[in-house]
Amino acid sequence: MLLDVLQGAEPGGFILIQDTVKCTGRGILKCFINAALKRGEDVHVLGFEASETEVCAGLDRSCVQKLHFHKGFPDPLGWMCRSSFTVDQLTSQHITKLIKDSQHAKAPVLVIDSLSLVLRHHDPVVISQRLQVLRKGGDIKTIISLLHSDLHLHGVVGIVSQLASTVISVAPANNEHHAVATTTRRSKSGKVMQEEEYFNVSEDMTLSVQAKLRQHGHVQKEQKVAEADPASNLTFNLRLSEEERKAKEKLALPFVFSKEKKSALLRPTPGSGRIMYEPDANDDFDEEDPDDDLDV
Amino acid sequence: MAAPVRCMAGSSSRSNTTSFQKKTRSKLVSIPGTRPSVRSSSRSNTTSFQKKTRSKLVSIPGTRPSVQNGQLLLSSGVSSLDYVIGGGLAVGTLLLVEEDRYDSYSRMLLKYFLAEGVVCGHELFLASARDHPDEIMQELPSPIMDEVASLKISEGQPQPSDPENPDTMKIAWRYQNQPRVQTALASSLRFGHYYDVSKTMEPELRQTAKCHSFYQLQETPVTTGSSPLPSPYHALLKSIQTVIRKEGFDGSTPQSKTRNVLRLGLHSLGSALWGDDVCCKDNPAHCHALSTFLYALRGLLRTSLSVAMVTVPSHLIQNRAVMGRIIRLSDTAIALESFRGSEKETNPLYKDYHGLLHVRQLPHLNCLSCEGPDTKDLAFKLKRKQFTIERLHLPPDLSETVSRVSKTELAAGCGTTATGNKHLDF
């Protein structure tokens, strides 16, 4: 599913890559940039955490001119007026102006590297509203953003993830070459798909999804279920062999009526009479069941 | 709280002549969602006195009086949910839905609620901050009009025991005719409609309903002045108030033709997009904003012919006290817990269901007690044609007379030979 998200990003989407200090998500972010560039889309990068050379390293040389890097890295808060873009400028008006200035044929992709710095210097409520305005504005095809989830309160991560259409959270795997990506994709109709995959980012920023953890997990879980069967480790026998089952079926149980037995009982025998009796007012009818105490 | 509603519903029909009532009766028969047609046909040859009392309460399409307390009820669009919350949503009350983690099933419930409003001809008000209200309106499920009867029959009949199936139990004759225990919750009287989730409602049908919408992102911030409410909530409340006043739902200006009900759907209230920080901070700056809004909204609902469904992302709200207040301020509160993304998804115990439904609060209307389901252990599943809520586990039957049920029935059957035949095996 990770590859699906990478290939066809739906318009109006917001892809959030969550990483922690244990495993970086920058590799996946660069794969997304590379994939967008290869599709011939313009990419605007708001870089606060890495320099332009670092972001461009490994990207496809032929289409690097499609990448527009807005330098927020040297001075993200604008203290020394050395940056072309500061954290404060992450507003829909400013970004729309930036995009309109560069005049694209198609709606470009906006990459925020990373949202953590922005969220630490702004009210998360305001930021989430601005992101939503940007998303719904129609000037941007997709917003892709990196979030270091271990830097924020649980609630802040929650509201940003709620906004996102796709959340990819990366975690280290036991295998040293790979990491695990959990992709949660929410379709427009409200359907949620979730998948765990091993991934690897190669030198030229292509993403290879190695093995699907999901099937692996299923097998393990099924084994666990089988182990948990309470009837497996008993000192007596609860299961029936084929012969035992046949013998059991032959046994006529008391209080059970088969079709044959029922019809045999219902068949009127010749010469039997019928009792016609109509109770009248003088009849002493006992309301109580005399056999009430017997459990029959 | 119900007094204004009942008076308003009653006053119109009382002042009118009998000719008007005949009109409403014929209307009642034709409108789906009021009463089963069998009832209405039998009603036609009763005395005029009874007709009058009937039409007094059921003068609004898509509503019916409650069996318990005579409140005017309307359907939430999901018949098993109606059953769980005591027959339906009483007019003038607020239903709180705590969203599941990905907001997929709570959104579905909101769509059912709105779709039911469209089918019954109610007026709608939809407020949203995340998606445009028109987008939600376009996704409404399509109503199933003709197949309703067959659907009902197939679901009500117990499956005949299959002799080839090795799992069928051989059972003593006295237990053979015990009624099968129904796990699905449903009331005997049909109320509300069924919807096909795979199809969207036809635009022609959708446009028959008058829909007011409120989209947070398009609203210009208003100066709240001395109001204790932050800007988006204030604007929303003003907007609801305007609709209720202008369309005459508060009863101050008489509505032009027939009385109607306003259904308010408020999506994801309290999320960050409403400018509320209850979701991200433990000690929010405006911790009373949402409760103040709900308090004011409740006041509006109580004095008007309207019903509200509010969804709240409760899993994000950090402060339990805030959530508790929100629940207390709503009349009915339910919570959806989806299995998606949790370890319960693969648990064999839950394999037939999509999530759990917790009933947080039931309405106490004009009385101390409330009508609720017999068990709180409920699960839901979303099928293509139906959203059903079922009992997850059946409660143990602890009464002493459990095993004697069939015997008393048998005894009764023997006494009156004509009726008791089905209980006799030989």
Automatic annotation (TrEMBL), chain A:
Source taxon at top rank: Eukaryota
Comp. bias regions, Acidic residues: 280-296
Keyword Phosphoprotein: no
One Pfam family from the record: Elong_Iki1
Primary subcellular site in the record, as a coarse category: cytoplasm
Alphabetic keyword roster: Cytoplasm, Nucleus, tRNA processing
Single biological process term from Gene Ontology: tRNA wobble uridine modification
Presence of keyword Nucleus: yes
CC terms in the record's Gene Ontology section: cytosol; elongator holoenzyme complex; nucleus
Subcellular location as annotated: Cytoplasm; Nucleus
Region feature (Disordered): 265-296
Gene Ontology MF annotations: tRNA binding
Family to which this protein belongs: Belongs to the ELP5 family.
Pathway connected to this protein: tRNA modification; 5-methoxycarbonylmethyl-2-thiouridine-tRNA biosynthesis
Organism listed in the record: Phoxinus phoxinus (Eurasian minnow)
Name listed for the protein in its UniProt record: Elongator complex protein 5
TrEMBL record, chain B:
Subcellular location(s) per record: Cytoplasm; Nucleus
A GO cellular-component term linked to this record: cytoplasm
Region (Disordered): 1-56
Entry keyword set: Cytoplasm, Nucleus, tRNA processing
Predominant localisation class: cytoplasm
Keyword tRNA processing: yes
Regions of compositional bias (Low complexity) in chain numbering: 34-48
Cytoplasm listed as a keyword: yes
GO BP term, example: tRNA wobble uridine modification
Tree of life domain: Eukaryota
Compositional bias of kind Polar residues: 10-21
Pathway: tRNA modification; 5-methoxycarbonylmethyl-2-thiouridine-tRNA biosynthesis
Pfam family of the protein (one): PAXNEB
PANTHER family, A to Z: ELONGATOR COMPLEX PROTEIN 4 (PTHR12896:SF1), PAX6 NEIGHBOR PROTEIN PAXNEB (PTHR12896)
Entry similarity comment: Belongs to the ELP4 family.
General function of this protein: Component of the elongator complex which is required for multiple tRNA modifications, including mcm5U (5-methoxycarbonylmethyl uridine), mcm5s2U (5-methoxycarbonylmethyl-2-thiouridine), and ncm5U (5-carbamoylmethyl uridine). The elongator complex catalyzes the formation of carboxymethyluridine in the wobble base at position 34 in tRNAs.
Name listed for the protein in its UniProt record: Elongator complex protein 4
Organism: Phoxinus phoxinus (Eurasian minnow)
